[in-house]
Amino acid sequence: MRPIQMVDTKTQYHKIKSEVDEAVLAVMESTAFINGKIVQDFSAHLSSYLQVKHTIPCANGTDALQIAMMALGLQPGDEVITPSFTYIATTEVIALLKLTPVFVDVDAKTFCMDPVALEKAITPKTKAIVPVHLYGHAAPMSAIMEIAKKHNLFVIEDNAQAIGCEYTFPDGTIKKTGTIGYIGTTSFYPSKNLGAFGDGGAIFTNDDTMAALMKMIANHGQSKQYYHDVVGCNSRLDSIQAAILDIKLKHLEEYIQARRSAADYYDKAFAAHPKIQTPFRAPYSRHVFHQYTLVLENVNRDELKLFLAHLSIPAMIYYTVPGHKQKMFASFNVASQVMPVTDWLTSRVISLPIHTELEEEQLEFISAKVLEFVNK
After folding, report:
1. Residue 191 phi, psi dihedral angles, 5° rounding
2. Do 64 and 202 contact (CB within 8 A), yes or no?
3. Of the candidates 52, 165, 169, 263, which lies 20 to 30 Å from 179 by C-alpha distance?
4. Which domains are assigned to the chain?
């Protein structure tokens, strides 16, 4: 049995090595390392895949969120609502821009923003909502978009963990996550479902004016060379990463199916176990399983992680400290907020290896050892 990895990017690379190597060498030969034609090609191909009008590549997923918020013209003190149970990048950008992060609780099954908690958190200062499609499962976008429309709020989707996820609306309409809100963002960090061999990110919108503004902000605020119309930043996806991503985009559906198949195996292995809650799959969401996350009851989660580590089975805990309890947000006086579901999840979740290269022998070994510990 091959060594088990949390994410096996090396084996994935070797399966497409000839394609990737050829694409990278083509960039080297062109010497168009920044904003080469391949960047525009990848942008167009990703727009086509997502069925969105505009894709603006940038340097990373955190920059994507920052550029989106800068483009909305939010002012210091404006409130932006986001879940506390997510990676810190979602919320640190809010504080970085001197906006006010407002944390809300999540749903116990989907781990995504709770619409009831969202509506209760809205004040006259609220200007935007940032739902996160966590672990590859879609947030309840129908309800979120209705609330946003009712209160005249912007919606920025954090789609860093769910590219390729599909959301089905009550009327049967299907859209990819990241294309439902006013703006969508994603990350191409190497471990993502569509991962580069370095950093990268992108922003999505169907609004022509907003797309032009975000493209300008990402390039030092330039409308044309040496004419800087707004304060911007320097955030670019380089040509080599674009070439790699363009190849991997062709395989994305294949990667999603591999992840879903691995999740199916785990689901069957842990089915109906009283101490294990397997990932919920809402009827409206095509889960793409960026993570396969269990919720444990009456199990010592930290001891399970150590037990697996001694067997060379990696496991991760996302996220041990939620946003509202992080020291970086102490000045916002949010630590005392009551978030029972978030607190419950942070003490119980554990993520097992999930990636495109998992073999049945590995899945069998992982699930057997989890059950061995849980049944002790």
Report:
1. -85, -5
2. yes
3. 263
4. 9-104+112-250 (3.40.640.10), 252-374 (3.90.1150.10)
Q: pLDDT tens across 131-166, in order? A: 999 999 999 999 999 999 999 999 999 999 999 999
- Residue 139 tokens read as 């947030």
Report how far Cα 223 is from the mean position of its chain's Cα atoms.
Answer: 30
251-296: pLDDT as tens digits? 999 999 999 999 999 999 999 899 999 999 999 999 999 999 999 9
Helix (H, G, I), strand (E, B) or coil at 248: helix
Confidence tier at 223 by pLDDT (50, 70, 90): confident
Residues in Cβ contact with 248 at an 8 Å cutoff, skipping those fewer than 6 apart:
16, 20, 194, 195, 255
The residues, ordered by sequence, that sit 6+ positions from 237 with a Cβ below 8 Å of its Cβ are 39, 42, 57, 58, 59, 188, 200, 201, 202, 245
The 3 state secondary structure assigned to 18-51 is HHHHHHHHHHHHHCCCECCHHHHHHHHHHHHHHC
Confidence of residue 336 (pLDDT cuts 50, 70, 90): confident
Regarding pTM above 0.90, the answer is yes
Q: Running DSSP on this structure, what letter comes out for residue 344?
A: H
CB within 8 Å of 343: residues ≥ 6 apart? 322
Spatial CA neighbour of 94 closest among 132, 52, 139: 132
Query: Which of 311, 267, 274, 271 shows the shortest CA–CA distance to 289?
Result: 267
- Look at the chain and count its residues: 376
If we measure between CA atoms, which residue out of 204, 207, 237 comes closest to residue 219? 237
Quick one: 369 exposed, middle or buried, by C-beta within 10 A (0-12, 13-18, 19+)? Answer: middle
Give the whole-angstrom CA distance, residue 286 versus residue 280. Answer: 11
43 C-beta neighbours (distance < 10 Å), count: 19
Q: Which residues contact 171 (CB under 8 A, 6 or more apart)?
A: none
Q: Quick check: helix, strand or coil at residue 257?
A: helix
| 295 within 8 A of 349, measured Cβ to Cβ | yes
Alpha-carbon gap, residue 10 to 126, rounded angstroms: 44
d(Cα 187, Cα 101) in Å, to the nearest integer? Answer: 21
Q: Whole-angstrom Cα distance, residue 296 to residue 220?
A: 47
